[in-house]
Amino acid sequence: xxxxxxxxDDPLLGDAVQAGLRQRGYDADWVKDGVAAEAALRTTDFxxxxxxxxxxxxxxxxxxxxxxAKGSPIPVxxxxxxxxxxDRIKGFDTGADDYxxxxxxxxxxxxxxxxxxxxxxxxxxxxxxVAGLRLDPAARTVAYRGxxxxxxxxxxxxxxxxxxxxxxxxxxxxxxxxxxxxxxxVESNAVEVHIxxxxxxxxxxxxxxxxxxxxxxxxxxAGGDD
Length: 226
Ligand code: CA
Prior knowledge:
This protein has helices at 11-23, 34-43, 60-69, 85-94, 106-120, 153-164, 172-179, 190-201, and strands spanning 2-7, 26-31, 48-52, 76-80, 98-101, 128-130, 133-136, 141-144, 147-149, 208-210, 214-216. The chain is built from 8 helices and 11 strands. The strands form 3 sheets. It has a 5-stranded parallel beta sheet, sandwiched between helices. Strand 7 (133-136) and strand 8 (141-144) form a beta hairpin. Bound molecules: calcium ion. Calcium ion (CA) binds next to loops. Calcium ion is lined by residues 9-10, 52, 54-55.
């Protein structure tokens, strides 16, 4: 079983994350401050860390900085608040592998954890197949109904987000955060432009607009429930 360390001082969130990961097949240890986390990492071989940043005794960024300074390659998934873009940038700069925004969606957390563990083991990301689309993250190729489709880098990343979140409505803000996780500038209409291009290159009905909420890739685009 994959053993992971959860570092979270909020008792409700820590408990929920530990229980959620156990339900999803992980062996999850949970500690509530940075010093306890550092001790656990010294004595136990974990496959990954789920790391809150605001922690008592030793904050998450400092813990991460120390681990990377020691040369530890352990994959780290950071938990951050929705509005804490600065924290996410600092997290990436310090050596975090990915992040999840609070309130935490446990399925998303488990999926992102799986991805960073797989990457750390040198295993390629699995090919995604949804709604006639086939996306190969390792080869960065896309086909729709068997026909190869040329996408620009951001269009590819956007389509991958939709395929990883099939049937789940993504708000424009969520999409922007995923597309621009590394802190580059977001043009005000960038998301609409990328979605327009995806619809034109693939099929108009694949990505639906949910008025006032966001966009969704339905598993069955021809489901007729519009
Ligand atoms: Ca905290």
